[in-house]
Design a protein that fits this description.
Elements (H helix, E strand, L loop, with lengths): L9 H19 L9 H4 L8 H12 L4 H15 L1 H9 L11 H27 L4 H14 L9 H28 L3 H31 L1 H14 L17 H12 L4 H14 L10 H23 L15
The protein binds fe (ii) ion (2 copies).
The site of one fe (ii) ion has 5 residues, from α8 and α9.
């Protein structure tokens, strides 16, 4: 069995844990033969009942608040910008797309599962009749075209911390949209968002397990990477969303809608950090160097500090009118 040097490089660590990941990957992915697809959830134009189904989808969509529609569109754009995330992650140290190593296999399979999210949500938006599809499509094109910097560079440690957080955040957002859709009587949208949320939860488990493995063999470097990502703050892709015509500060308007509804709030951000600290048992990580000890202390104190700020944050009541929504 190969062993690692005392101060292993990122590439050594990735190769080392890659061997375990190979057998683990199937625990975090569903077989394609069994996975749900958009066509099972939404009516097909070839269905004999298509016209009636469409009418019912459009009637149901009228039940939702403006804020819920805004959040749903922004969530969909985030999902549709998947090529941005795949190209970013394919460049990580230890991911070798030309030799299709185990990390690249994970990335391809993860992308293939994620790709269904944008497909299904986009199709719902098209059918529901409340969306200006051109405005929505242009926003997606902007995000893919301009790319998005998550602040983690090509470092796998920082990126896996980022994706652990991001998958949990999308789980929360889709899960809550599913709950609100159900309360509004829209079982179809609720089911769709619930299935997407379940995928996100499974993916979060995978990324958290990768970080856990890194922590076991390169704790000090992982701790420094975690501190760095928290100091930079986790940037959501939605923070880069633009509209045709270039409305400024679009994210803060969208974020207000999410906060007003309670779909994703500043307190959720704090809770996600708490969840990561506890899942990785950061408090009890030992054998750190001095800078690693300091990083751990910073991380352990972070939720209390951020909670104080989050408690003061009050979303504005003013509803911003997005170009994506017709009515
Ligand atoms: Fe997704
Ligand atoms: Fe995801």
């Amino acid at each position: 069995m190969s062993t690692l040097s005392l101060t292993p490089s990122r590439i050594e660590v990735m190769n080392f844990i890659g061997k375990d990941i190979e057998s683990d990957i199937t625990n975090y992915l569903n077989p394609i033969e069994e996975n749900w697809q958009a066509s099972e959830l939404l009516p097909l134009t070839s269905d004999a009942t298509f016209v009636e189904d469409l009418k019912s989808i459009q009637e149901m969509a009228q039940n939702h608040s403006y804020d819920l529609m805004a959040v749903l569109v922004a969530d969909t754009i985030t999902e549709e910008a998947l090529p941005t995330y795949e190209t970013w992650l394919a460049g990580l140290t230890g991911v070798d797309q030309y030799n299709n190593n185990v990390w690249m296999k994970w990335l391809r399979s993860w992308t293939a599962e994620e790709n269904r999210h944008g497909d299904a949500l986009n199709r719902y938006l098209y059918l529901c009749g409340r969306i200006d599809m051109r405005a929505f499509e242009a926003s997606t094109q902007y995000l893919i075209s301009e790319g998005f910097d998550n602040g983690a560079g090509s470092d796998p440690y920082r990126n896996f911390i980022y994706t652990s957080f991001q998958e949990m955040a999308t789980n929360i957002s889709h899960r809550r949209v599913a709950t609100f859709a159900k309360q509004d009587g829209n079982n179809l949208l609720s089911k769709l968002c619930g299935l997407v949320a379940a995928d996100e939860a499974r993916h979060a488990k995978a990324y958290k397990s990768f970080v856990k493995r890194i922590l076991e063999i390169d704790a000090n470097e992982l701790m420094l990477a975690f501190e760095d990502m928290m100091r930079k703050k986790i940037v959501m892709p939605a923070q880069c969303i633009k509209e045709l015509g270039g409305t400024t500060n679009l994210y803060s308007n969208f974020s207000m809608a999410a906060q007003r509804l309670g779909v994703y709030t500043s307190m959720d951000y704090v809770d996600l950090i708490k969840n990561l600290l506890s899942d990785w048992d950061i408090e009890n990580v030992r054998n750190l160097q001095e800078n690693g000890e300091k990083a751990r202390d910073f991380l352990m104190n972070l939720p209390i500090r951020l909670a104080r700020i989050a408690e003061r944050a009050k979303p504005s009541d003013e509803v911003f009118r997005f170009s994506w929504i017709r009515a």
